[in-house]
Amino acid sequence: FTDVNLNSRNTYEVSRRRSAPEHLPHGGTAPAAPAPPQEPVERARRAGIAGAGSSFAEFFTRNFFTKRTKELKPAVQSAPGWKLFGKVPPRENLPKDSKIIQQEYEARTGRMYKPPPPSARRKNIEFEPLSTTALILEDRPANLPAKSVEEALRHRQEYDEMVAEAKKREIKEAHKRKKIMRERFKQEENIASAMVIWVNEILPNWEGMRATRRVRELWWQGLPPSVRGKVWSLAVGNELNITPELYEIFLSRAKERWKSFSETSSENDIEDAVASVADREASLELIKLDISRTFPSLYIFQKGGPYHDLLHSVLGAYTCYRPDVGYVQGMSFIAAVLILNLEEADAFIAFANLLNKPCQLAFFRVDHSMMLKYFAAFEVFFEENLPKLFLHFKSYSLTPDIYLIDWIFTLYSKSLPLDLACRVWDVFCRDGEEFLFRTGLGILRLYEDILLQMDFIHIAQFLTKLPEDITSEKLFSCIAAIQMQNSNKKWAQVFASLMKDNKEGDKNHSPALKS
Amino acid sequence: MGSAEEDYNFVFKVVLIGESGVGKTNLLSRFTRNEFNHDSRTTIGVEFSTRTILVGDAVVKAQIWDTAGLERYRAITSAYYRGAVGALVVFDITKHQTYDVVDRWLKELYDHAEASIVVMLVGNKTDLAQAREVPMEEAKMFADNNGLLFVETSALDSTNVEQAFETILKEIFHKVQKQKQRNSQSNTVSLANESTESTAPTQTEKRPCCVAL
Q1: What residues in B contact A461, CB-CB < 8 Å?
Q2: Which cellular compartments is it found in (chain B) (predicted)?
Q3: Structural domain of residue B149, as residue ranges?
């Protein structure tokens, strides 16, 4: 599970299927019946299948079509008259038929079909346009009156045009497919070669190379999944000097506490004995509750799933390590992403250090005035980069807290597809908190045109539930276009100056957060 | 029918509040999309949904703000109560603790929302009747004593979900109508001021969530 393209969106179907058990006949033997929670493996497996959903669908349709065309074949040879074929899937074993049919048609019409211009038939395109099979002109049935010459000519012409059009389209699609394949290969090659560079050159000389231009550029392209965890760990650092042994100590403390809670709560109902006890218990309860609600579509962290206990351990140990912060919703997502990329103790170390960064600490402590500062700094760059949208939002008094809270608390892992979120994390590890806000502006830029057409509630709905087809190329090109410069001041300077005029400026931003 | 969706007479902002895990998000998804998720994701901050319904012959668009239930977030989320004309205070009938804190939620609500807000107490998860910890009579009495509407629901099997939202929207509607009659001279009604604000631009994207089911 080092590679996290277990994109949560892919498994959407599964959760939907599970969400509608009441529509199924009870006691039915439908094989697609919801998996009982005791079958995590089965569930995970199914999630995997759903992940490959599109190719499965292809497989089925192909099989279906092969069968159908086979069934139809005899009819082609015997019965005269009009024949309409269904859309024939590309790359099926039909070129022979289509050629015969084309020849027949050519023989009958006495014309040769003009092949498309050679430029379109460049080199070795691995397919044969099959559009000619779509419609076959044959003798009209005897019971219909003959067409006039004019009409026949017109129909022939229309037919030729249709065929030419279809061919053009097919060639275009084939090119597109090839291009996508080429890009995918290139991407894989890039990842492979990048991995070699990371492993052989950069990681052994981390301190010396991490800030070089070459490394930074390579970093922006996205970290290869196999070194991702390692680079994150190094970049986040270990200011807190946590060792794996220390983690074990806090973990065993957490386990003791869980045990004592399950005992006391069953023995005597301590009503309002100690408020903090209830709070802590609530915190543990909350962790339990949230774990099953963390990337639910992956079926990895849910009860019985392979990483359920791990996530529980990391979060539990953290509440013992930092009782001053405790467990706050949103943490489970961060811990989960780390667990997907790192070993248990390393995940904990990275987690604790990450949450110790000023921005994360401000948010997870729900330090209002600090959060307002971050929102205010964000708005400075928002206005600078996207003035039109900024005014549009202002006109609806739509404040950044409405969408930023979710984005910042979970470091985008809840709102973006997981693979894309990991790429955001990559650069976040390189650039720090500034990049979180830059990503937010990148998202706004990407959807600026749509957002400008929306009113308050639609914007709010849109931004708290982003489209699922968001791609990393598009998002990162939008992020790259965001300038984190405000009249020569960088993020850190803007933020620092906002911190300075703490007292006066307090009331001018994010009215929604003033209470 | 996009045009029907955007063609409304009133917009009512309704907030969903209550402890974490009582089923707020599922109540909302059941009402707006007829969906239920056993493992829906934790709500962080606030999420939104809308649905348009008919009250009498008026088209009412419910703009529902689904807030995070975590205690720590309350300071943030309470800011979102402003301008709300209705609130559903949700608890889980199988967890007494979520009912015990309803008082605190109400206090938060009245501190930040307008006094005229219509509040409904919702006991969710009636499908888990065998694990019930909060007797219905007790909750009903509490609601009566505090001037709250009351209903028990199950987002899982859909029991009363539609009714819950419809009841509160109707109640808000009647309240608005009464207020309108009272100060027929003034053109805006404090309860409905949201609508004038939100109806202004008609160029809005059509979203599937509001299409009649």
Answers
A1: 48-50, 207, 209
A2: Cell projection, Pseudopodium membrane; Endomembrane system
A3: 10-182
